[in-house]
Specification:
InterPro entries: Ig_Tag1-like_4th, Ig_Tag1-like_5th, Tag1, Tag1_C. The chain is an alpha+beta fold. It folds into six domains: about 100 residues, no CATH class; about 150 residues, Immunoglobulin-like; about 150 residues, Sandwich (Immunoglobulin-like); about 160 residues, no CATH class; about 140 residues, Sandwich (Immunoglobulin-like); about 120 residues, Immunoglobulin-like. About 20% of the residues lie in helices and about 45% in strands. It contains 15 helices and 45 strands. The strands form four sheets. It has a 16-stranded mixed sheet that branches. Strands 1, 2, 3, 4, 5, 6, 7, 8, 9, 12 and 15 form an eleven-stranded mixed sheet that branches. Strand 38 and strand 39 form a beta hairpin. Helix 5 crosses helix 6 and helix 11 crosses helix 14. The longest helix is centred in the first third of the chain and has 23 residues. The N terminus is likely disordered.
């Protein structure tokens, strides 16, 4: 077709005269002109052909004489009408040529409505995917905002009616990624109605061929990592268009689309409906592996249908840092999945863990946690622990290579819902409790500066239903906080040492859940008391409550577990429980029954005496203790009179013998009142009275733990004064310091048999002022003696002490009557005693002293 045929309106304005036959041929090739020239007149004749300017062609011909005049009066109106019609057509051509294409393009962009109704992936081919696309196509003029564009578009599309395309190949590129080819789609011939409001149901099968896997991988990873803000796509295609059977040529189309990341389809929300771990034999191997069965349900909200074949995936977990490569832990295979529009999709996967890689259990640099620890910490804390799913690089036999390339290059993060283990501990108890007080020589930061607790831990934990495999707890260590009535008492720190443990699995039966019984013996676990008031409340409840008290314990436990995969260390497992403590006997202090023997004076001063002795005590409590060092103050009627100390003591249940203690008798610590109370206490004690003393701890009682000493000092613990075990055959005699007496009537003297409680030191009596009494009321005689004499260890016979008889008393008469025999007498005395540098004046009241009467 010539240029004049394509653009008749652009032909040159000056022409050469042409022959009639050539003009006729030219007119036939120009439809608008030829139709007007051939149109019959209303009078039954035909108009002559006209030029573009409206002049008669015949008037220019040499044979024009045979033709009627063209400008007769009766022929002007038809000619004029013809001229007007030709002008309108000419104007229309100009508008269509210059204005309509832009307007129609704008109209098509705004009016286009494409509603996908279904997308079904019919099959996966060796090159790509064959998809069936169903959609509704129409142009809606109401969507066009510009009124003039809307009118022109409607007219133009009405004139055309339908458009068709030939087989088309569409290439999609990524302009922001060096124009990487994203994919290719082969679209079959289509015919659509472009009239305003006419709907065309489109239904065709297209072959979708993915482009470069690297481009798909980059986009997918940026989207999954949240780094994709915008996605620009550019589509290019050479489209052959036709209107009916009239070809409209081939047009190169290039369109760009921009998608905002928040408007891209998101991974659907899913629900893990089933998860089960169990031991499973490895195919072709005698060993076993850990198998996992997982079922996931998600809702497909898109009109997409696809049948996904069985696929293989790798399960990975993060490394120590975000920059470390992922760690492969398992291989998984999914069952075939049927995806249907707007319905639930169920995916079932079977995973197998053969062993745990070293990189998974190796501690991260600068920390004490491994990637496995970090994963378990989130999981068991109830948080979502992220795992990554990636296609296997070695595909199944029926998996196309292009699909493997794509899936193996994309790691999809999958939040794995955590499982809080806070409520899995069914019971927690501590038995056979043994306490160890702090080491006095330990530094403040040394664990030995804290009291320590030993005991047998019994834990009964529920096993989650999904754990159907054998496990054995071999060791535990933990950091636990102990509470009493929701107030923190202290902390038990087992972090530094693994405690041996053993466990027994109890399977579910009769509707009861499966449980794991764990037993561990903790040895010398430091207890850091953080609140002395709480400790006081606990001790008071033990002493006076009369019933079991419960301590709450919240712990973070590290567990060594033997499984089919080998030994695992699971760190930071939360555990809660209660520690029941048995109350102390109500008569505990009366049951202690302290007895002191083998007293050795180690040091004296004018105000004090330091001794070392062997004591026997009874422990009526269900607890045992080791005491490296303890110091307690001794009070009498509220006044401080001395201090007792002990070290390296092992207190067991029941009777404890040969306990070495040291004490300092120093009433001057309580001032003048202390001296008075000390003298009275010592006098009562020597006289055999049932004396009591009050013992209290103080801030220095337990070195390095002033809070414990301060807490215990608020308790007034009153106990019987320790009994001195004196030599003698008779039990009654072993409690009397004056064992026997002999009165000489004629010489008016008396001698006494004394038994010293000291086995290594000599006690001196500097003065005696005493009265012998019969029948508790009748005086017999009086002794005043101011010459010192010694009372060495063991039995000692005093010198003959002068006696001034009460001659007119009944007691003296009874004394004479007992001449040559024996008589029971009482004695009241004030005695000045001396031990080394220490001196004191005490009073003594002895009853039922056996006395011999001699002439």
């Amino acid at each position: 077709m010539s240029d004049s045929e394509r653009s008749p309106l652009l032909a040159p304005s000056s022409r050469e005269p042409a022959r009639h036959s050539e003009d006729a041929e030219s007119l036939e090739s120009t439809p608008l002109l030829s139709s007007s020239a051939a149109k019959p007149r209303y009078d039954g004749t035909q108009d002559e052909p006209h030029d573009v300017d409206g002049a008669s062609v015949a008037s220019r011909d040499a044979d024009a004489a045979s033709v009627k005049p063209a400008k007769s009066k009766h022929s002007r109106w038809p000619s004029f009408i013809a001229m007007i019609v030709l002008a309108i057509f000419a104007l229309s051509i100009i508008v269509v040529a210059f204005f309509v294409p832009a307007a129609v393009e704008e109209y098509a962009k705004q009016a286009l409505v494409l509603e996908p109704t279904n997308l079904a992936l019919e099959s996966i081919t060796t090159d790509g995917v064959r998809a069936r696309v169903q959609a509704n196509f129409r142009l809606d003029g109401q969507r066009v905002q510009n009124e003039h564009v809307r009118r022109v578009g409607r007219v133009a599309t009405w004139l055309v009616g339908k458009l068709g395309t030939e087989q088309t190949k569409i290439n999609v590129y990524l302009p922001d990624y060096d124009n990487i080819l994203l994919g290719t789609a082969g679209v079959p011939p289509l015919v659509v109605s472009i009239m305003d409001g006419h709907n065309t149901a489109v239904d065709f099968v297209a072959d979708l061929i993915p482009g470069e896997a690297e481009g798909i991988r980059m986009i997918a990873n940026e989207w999954l990592e949240g780094r994709l803000d915008l996605l620009r796509l550019r589509g290019k295609a050479d489209v052959q268009i036709k209107a009916g059977i009239i070809p409209l040529g081939t047009h190169s189309i290039s369109e760009s689309l921009t998608f905002e990341a928040n408007k891209l389809p998101q991974l659907p929300a899913y629900n893990i409906t089933k998860i089960n771990f169990q031991e499973e034999p490895i195919p072709g191997d005698s060993q076993k592996a850990m198998a996992a069965e997982v079922s996931i349900t998600a809702f497909n909200e898109y009109p997409v249908s696809i049948d996904i074949p069985k696929l293989g995936f790798e399960i990975l977990v993060p490394g120590c840092s975000p920059y470390d490569p992922f760690i492969l832990v398992a291989a998984a295979v999914t069952s075939p999945v049927a995806v249907r529009p707007r319905s639930d999709v169920v995916v079932t996967a079977h995973g197998l863990v053969r062993d745990l890689p070293e990189s998974l259990t190796r501690e991260c640099p600068g920390t004490e946690s491994s990637p496995l620890d970090l994963f378990f910490k989130k999981y068991m804390g109830g948080e979502a622990a992220t795992v990554y799913v990636r296609g296997q690089k070695q595909p199944a036999a029926d998996t196309p290579g292009w699909l493997t390339d794509i899936l193996s290059s994309i790691a999809v993060p999958v939040p794995f819902p955590g499982r809080s283990l806070d409520n899995l501990i069914r019971s927690f108890s501590l038995t056979d409790v043994h306490f160890t007080l702090p080491d006095p020589g330990a530094e403040p930061d040394d664990p030995d500066s804290n009291p320590k607790v030993s005991g047998t831990i019994l834990v009964l934990a529920a096993l989650p239903n999904e754990m159907n495999f054998t496990l054995d707890v071999t060791s535990v260590k933990a950091n636990a906080t102990v509470y009493y009535h929701s107030r923190e008492l202290g902390q038990l720190d087992l972090r530094d040492k693994w405690q041996n443990a053993n466990s027994t699995q109890i399977p579910a039966s009769n509707g009861e859940e499966a449980t794991l019984k764990i037993q561990s013996r903790m040895e010398d676990v430091p207890l850091n008391v953080t609140d002395s008031d709480v400790l006081t409340a606990v001790i008071q409840a033990l002493l006076f409550g009369g019933k079991d008290i419960l301590l709450d314990i919240k712990a973070v436990v590290d567990v060594k577990v033997e499984t089919i995969l080998g030994e695992l260390i699971v760190k930071d497992v939360p555990a809660e429980g209660k520690i029941p403590l048995k109350p102390l006997p109500r008569n505990m202090f009366g049951s202690i029954e302290p007895k002191v023997g083998n007293v050795d004076v180690t040091e004296t001063s004018p105000n004090s005496v330091s001794i070392k002795a062997i004591a026997n005590v009874t422990n009526p409590t269900p607890y045992t203790a080791h005491i490296p060092f303890i110091s307690i103050h001794i009070f009498s009627n509220g006044s401080l009179v001395g201090e007792a100390r002990a070290q390296n003591l092992d207190i067991k249940k029941g009777e404890n013998t040969d306990i070495t203690v040291s004490a300092t008798w120093n009433p001057s610590l309580g001032g003048e009142e202390g001296r008075v109370q000390g003298r009275n206490l010592l006098s009562q004690y020597l006289s055999g009275y049932n004396t009591t003393i009050t013992v209290k701890t103080h801030r220095g009682s337990i070195p390095g733990q002033p809070l414990i000493g301060e807490a215990l000092s608020r308790l007034n613990i009153t106990v019987a004064a320790p009994q001195l075990r004196l030599p003698g055959k008779d039990e009654d005699d072993r409690t009397h310091f004056i064992r026997d007496a002999t009165f000489h009537i004629f010489s008016s003297t008396a001698t006494f048999l004394l038994v010293s409680p000291l086995q290594h030191n000599t006690l001196y009596i500097d003065a005696v002022n005493a009265t012998a009494i019969y029948n508790h009321t009748e005086p017999i005689g009086r002794i005043e003696y101011d010459l010192p004499f010694a009372a060495p260890p063991g039995e000692t016979l005093t010198p003959k002490l002068p006696v001034e008889w009460s001659l007119d008393s009944v007691g003296y008469d009874r004394l004479k009557e007992a001449l040559g025999g024996r008589l029971r007498l009482d004695a009241k005395a004030t005695v000045a005693v001396r031990l080394g540098q220490w001196k004191e004046v005490v009073w003594y009241y002895g009853r039922g002293i056996g006395a011999s009467v001699r002439p």
